[in-house]
Design goal:
The chain is built from 17 helices and eight strands. It is an alpha/beta fold. The structure holds adenine and zinc ion. The site of zinc ion (ZN) has 6 residues, from strand 1.
Length: 341
């Protein structure tokens, strides 16, 4: 049989990606060695085998512990460059990248080191990899709101490089309203607003993020399905949800990929997008998530194309680039599928 041409992934935007969650074990070992840090694992394989989580907190414990290897501008530049190379190979044409300054400043690493390091890679990304980027400063919601406000103030010299603020880390018990003042200050500084809500936390947190914080997009949001009125509102207002299927399974928010509610969310008319969250930890990057949805849930080419289109529509790109990306997607030819033998 003649081989089929290699499928090129759909051009898409990745809107929910924590740069610290792209730290592959091999790079963690390189950076640990470079910075004279001892990792409590003998090999990258041994570290990878520790990636078994019972819930969000069990993941966050390891995620924050491993950030210790990131110390210098070069470390952050290497981390971001490695992600951008992989992202380009997965069809990502635009990436909106979270970073967690408090995970670094709490260890004595200056926020300027983080932003300048990431910017070294991001500044060349469009030209080198065809991936435009935005940075989203994410506050750790399990720390006091005063800490978040101080972080926003520390970020002020770098706001020309930061497009938005977000809210992540342990959700339950840390409702969005805790950050009302910080979000008001971020809005006044001209930043766009997003927040994680409805990952492990209740649907009420989604409504609160919209009403009290004034966010434009909800990260995760899968628990909206528990509240019919909320779903109706999210549909009516076409609030984008950045859903991360592999993450939801690995963090036990959903039992198996086959049980993921994404098809129900699409059927309800929600503006669903798909992202990878912390791809090094959750078993795949964004195109791997798309293909997982095809295999486990039977999503069609048309549905996958809709997800890619939604990602471009929900992104913070400027309008000329949005038009270019939509045109590129429209021109993308789906690879032929070999019929099942
Ligand atoms: N930080 C990194 N990944 C996260 C997730 N999935 N939820 C909350 N905080 C995070
Ligand atoms: Zn996330």
């Amino acid at each position: 049989m003649t081989p089929l041409p290699k499928a090129t992934p759909l051009p898409k935007a990745e809107l929910h990606l924590h740069i610290e969650g792209t730290l592959e074990p091999e790079l963690a070992f390189v950076l640990a060695e470079r910075n004279g840090i001892d990792l409590p694992y003998a090999t990258p394989e041994q570290l990878r085998s520790a990636y078994a989580f019972s819930d969000l907190q069990s993941f966050l414990d390891l995620y924050y512990r491993l950030t210790a290897v990131l110390r210098t501008e070069q470390d952050f530049a290497d981390l971001a460059e490695a992600y951008l190379v992989r992202a380009a190979g997965q069809g990502v044409r635009h990436a909106e990248i979270f970073f967690d300054p408090q995970a670094h400043t709490s260890r004595g690493v200056d926020i300027g080191t983080v932003v300048r390091g990431l910017a070294q890679a991001l500044d060349h990304s469009e030209e080198r990899h065809g991936v435009s980027t935005r940075l989203i400063l994410s506050f750790l919601r399990d720390l006091p709101a005063e800490d978040a406000m101080r972080t926003l103030d520390e970020a002020r010299p770098y706001l020309d490089r930061i497009s938005a603020v977000g809210l992540d880390s342990a959700e339950v018990g840390h409702p969005p309203a805790k950050f009302a003042e910080v979000y008001a200050a971020a809005r006044a500084a001209g930043l766009r607003l997003v927040a994680h809500a409805g990952e492990e936390g209740p649907p009420g947190y989604i409504a609160e993020a919209l009403d009290v914080l004034g966010v434009e997009r909800i990260d995760h949001g899968i628990r909206c399905l528990e509240d019919e009125d909320l779903v109706a509102r999210l549909v009516a207002e076409q609030i984008p949800l950045t859903v991360c299927p592999f993450s939801n399974v690995r963090l036990r928010c959903v039992d198996r990929l086959e049980d993921h509610p994404l098809p129900a969310m699409l059927a309800a008319g929600l503006l669903v997008t798909v992202s990878s969250d912390d791809p090094s930890y959750f078993g795949g990057y964004v195109e791997d998530n798309y293909q997982g949805l095809r295999t486990a849930l039977g999503l069609t080419d048309e549905q996958l194309r809709q997800l890619a289109r939604n990602s471009i529509l929900a992104s913070f790109v400027d309008e000329p680039r949005r038009e270019r990306l939509l045109a590129e997607l429209a021109a993308h030819v789906a690879p032929p599928h070999r019929p099942e033998a």
